[in-house]
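Worked example (supplementary).
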Amino acid sequence: MSLESIQIGFMPPADKVSAENLLQLVAYAQSKGFDYIVSPINSPAYRRVLFEEEEPQNPSLRAWRAGLESFRPEDLVLRTADHSEFIVGTISDWQDFDSQDLKVRLHSELALKQQFNWASHLALGGVMLPYPPSSKPLSNYGRVLTSSISMLPYTACWLRVPCMDDELERNVAEELQGMKSWERWNTILNMAGSQSKLGIALELSATLPTDKVLDRWFAEPVKVVIIPEDIFLTNNKGYPVLSKRHQHVVRKFMRFKPYFMISSSSLPKLTLDEFSDDLLENSLASPHADYLRYLYRTQDTLGVIDQFATGYQDYLQAPLQPLQDNLESSTYETFEKDPIKYQQYELAVERALLDRPVPTDGTPDVTVIMVVGAGRGPLVNCSLRAAEKAGRNVRIYAVEKNPNAFVTIQNMKASLWGDRVNIVFSDMRTWNPPEQADILVSELLGSFGDNELSPECLDGAQKVLKPDGISIPANYTAFVAPMSSNKLHADVSSFKDLTHFETSYVVMFKAISLLAQPKPIWVFEHPNRKDIPLNQNPLSNHHNIRSGSIEFTSKTSGMIHGIAGYFESVLYKDVLLSINPETHSPGMFSWFPIYFPIKTPLYVPAGGQVVLDFWRLTDTRKVWYEWQVSCKVEGLGVIHSSSLHNVGGRSSSIGLY
Amino acid sequence: MSLESIQIGFMPPADKVSAENLLQLVAYAQSKGFDYIVSPINSPAYRRVLFEEEEPQNPSLRAWRAGLESFRPEDLVLRTADHSEFIVGTISDWQDFDSQDLKVRLHSELALKQQFNWASHLALGGVMLPYPPSSKPLSNYGRVLTSSISMLPYTACWLRVPCMDDELERNVAEELQGMKSWERWNTILNMAGSQSKLGIALELSATLPTDKVLDRWFAEPVKVVIIPEDIFLTNNKGYPVLSKRHQHVVRKFMRFKPYFMISSSSLPKLTLDEFSDDLLENSLASPHADYLRYLYRTQDTLGVIDQFATGYQDYLQAPLQPLQDNLESSTYETFEKDPIKYQQYELAVERALLDRPVPTDGTPDVTVIMVVGAGRGPLVNCSLRAAEKAGRNVRIYAVEKNPNAFVTIQNMKASLWGDRVNIVFSDMRTWNPPEQADILVSELLGSFGDNELSPECLDGAQKVLKPDGISIPANYTAFVAPMSSNKLHADVSSFKDLTHFETSYVVMFKAISLLAQPKPIWVFEHPNRKDIPLNQNPLSNHHNIRSGSIEFTSKTSGMIHGIAGYFESVLYKDVLLSINPETHSPGMFSWFPIYFPIKTPLYVPAGGQVVLDFWRLTDTRKVWYEWQVSCKVEGLGVIHSSSLHNVGGRSSSIGLY
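After joint prediction of all chains, the assembly is encoded as:
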């Protein structure tokens, strides 16, 4: 995240803005250091189109209805395109799209379209729609909005949404606060389609809903955050500040760099008298905007992960296929920079060495370590350092199949490692070693643990290990959780084919929300003495088939857009690597989570069960995943389920060769 | 429906069929006039692959698992391709795909695939899968089936499904009987995807579920109907017959021409002794099969509708666009054959004429009738006959815009009508008549009432009508109902684009099931004095905008694949036309219902609410429909909703010019 500034707008009370004071307000906002001002497009006078007399008596309204008459000057606040680059327009709030009165419905629709047309003509940067009151139905509103939004080719369009529901509903249980607000947004978005350009202007309030409820908004296209002036507190120096909770929420939204709007319930003093006492005060920047800029500047210094993540957030990457393809040097270099991962490997090797009994029969104390998939050598270095710390002698073999990486380890041997390390150019699955190993060290894990075929590679390498030898890692477990992310789903949808819905992606998550905590789905252990005969290759790969059916309870209602995948691995005893959010190894950045999309998003009601069915399957040439998501509700059974994704690996698989 | 024969198979008890008696059974079935026999592919011996000792002790099973060993001879009932054209194979029922034991799961999958492979190798016409017991989970079964079905490129594949659930469940309330059976089928179909080639072999039982529950099967791909011998009754001549209820159900399925299977719980006497008393009996055809053929032959003589419908059933047709396109002569001819429609028009005109007061002031008694959209003249003939019956004088104007049809009415005037009829070549909306009409007669209705723009045409024609004149039809109402049809949805899906999901189709429904009775959604009345100034054209078409949000309660669970549309029309007072199933004008065939698909089928639980939101919208050039479907459950709110279909008429519309 760069430190460039955020955009903050000034939103005076809509009913106090008129064509007459607009220029003064613009000048005021500019003097106060705001980046834009929020103004109604129309004056209250325009409401006449809803309530004037019936047509035969009113030829003007008939003509308007037939599209033959435009705005009258008194209908408008924004009469010209002057300063339009400094203005965000708001749509009037008196339309009633779902009225029982057909004329009111029709005229509301025509009025909205006329306002959109005008906003587009003025080239406003954005327009904001009022939130439809929660007492009203939504279907015609959703329909009108969906069909009208294409009238704004260059102007952003935001629906104003309160983060808490109407006052009336504030008395409901804490769990339910702010629920309906999201449900109504979701209804509209669902009508418009997930690829709609409609965004959210989320309005904060003095009382905020629970984190769980707020969390859902991070999976939605929040483009604007509205902060009313009156939720600011005053600190002991007299300056406006936000409560800790509000600071936390605002900072969380700052990651998405939305526009901010400071809304005010009263009009500022607009007539500047050069000689008045107000001069000084008036020429100072807005303390509210200043405070937000201060919050933005003083975000936690970016950690290594965030530096690394810049540009990767919510970007869909294909997982690596290290068996099929040779990794590039830059890929190795990126991963070698991880400050935590190799610390953990070093610690694991050190502990394993210390646990080995020192021979008492006079034979020399030498532990044979084989690093399989040595790459450019970082695990060899770890092993050498570990041996030194543990004070034990080691003989290391470094096995690598990538001819380009092998060049590097040849240099390493020549310049650094010497006789302590034997380098071998071979695929670990087919290598015939001169002796057997005490410790087999590998780094073949993917974001989902087994998704880069660590199980198959280590099964093949296992015959180089002594009967009592150990593998680092000792095991790895895949974790899954149902997740919500309009952004990622829309990105996958944009490919417009089935293949991309049946492919997994490695993604640095940002605009997502987990509907439940991740749960383990399966585990792989090494060495695998049960399925693989001693000193042999496995006869088939059937023992690496896995499946699981995991049930989650969704605490809020939400849309499921797919499955988030993570792994935890035991390297050795209590030395762990984890990208599972609950146990994430602090500071480790080598792995982003994995995202398995589903074709059609599924709604889950609060308290509903989400069932994830997952398979890891194999044939003689490849490994692939299949997945399916269902929702169950007590008393109703399964209320919907996705189709089975990636049947037979038809869309995506990992090649064994 | 042609009278060609149905295919009936003989299904002996699976555990009694062996490689040894197979040929005798084939000969027996042939001698009994069956079209095929149903035999297990494998003998019970094959079950060994699930339960033999673990691998290290059993190299043969390890080899089998690795795909290196095939069937042993004793594993098979069907050992050769002899008579394979006469055999339907059944898959063994001991597989347990969702076992907790991973080995049982894997071996079940491998065994199924091996059987599919063999069935394909033998070129069997069909294979039948056992129904998974309802006590077991389905997810791995569904996954295995979905991925294996492609191994049967030429062989049909049917899942055996009981129409009633397991014995255990028969004690539940009548409403629930047979529910779970469909739910489980739906779960499997949902995994496989609606375009799967998987069909149903529906097994009837002595007790049948309610019509409502049975009805759902007509929307599913039932390819086989299994009738156990022991549900037949014996009539007083000693012959097997079915109960009235069973006859009714079997006849209903005969419309779909499925395969029938007569299943027997005991093996027939196979050793024929030429000199025994059994000879005569044994050489007679199966009385059960004979009875089914008798039911098939004696179906109700095909009515006019069915004759007309041959070839149209479940075929998606684009609705007519009579304003944009000129109808062809054959289209007119088809519609003119309707025996009911013109009877009703004649009656309506007669009643309207009789209701007109005879002038008492000495002016001549002449009623002016204008037929707008006269086509080839059938309504002119109706009006002339009606005048004769009513004993009133008429002066008729026949207005037609289609130059080809106009040729025909010129001939009609010359040869038949003479001075009583004035013919006018014009669009009714722009015609300037020499006098005004007492009665305006038109036949502009589409399957949805207003979908061929009758409202717009009659609005334009209304100025030719006297202030107290009447329109025949006086009004028409559109009806909608949520419907289920895998077939129609799969047909629309096969176009693989959004456009076809946002288009309505005129369809002679067959493989469909309504989830609730149709309800009215909007109405058009003529003449429309409220919105259209006297003797003028309407200023805009806004008054023909309609919308409705209709809620239905679904009495069973089901999948919604779209919306069925119908119309009812009052021609004059109590003279009606209707294609709404509940009030359908008997024998009238001019209109099939209309089908509005939805992109993603939605599941509705039993007792759930289905909300259909529907709009008829207009701009200056066209009229179009938009629609959306949602499901609500009490206490949960909306559990899912479709996107808004056909936004702004982007995929389909009806041109005004």
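Two points are worth noting when inspecting this output. Chain A touches chain B through 49 residues (CB under 8 Å). Residues 8-300 of chain A form a domain with the TIM Barrel fold (CATH 3.20.20.150).
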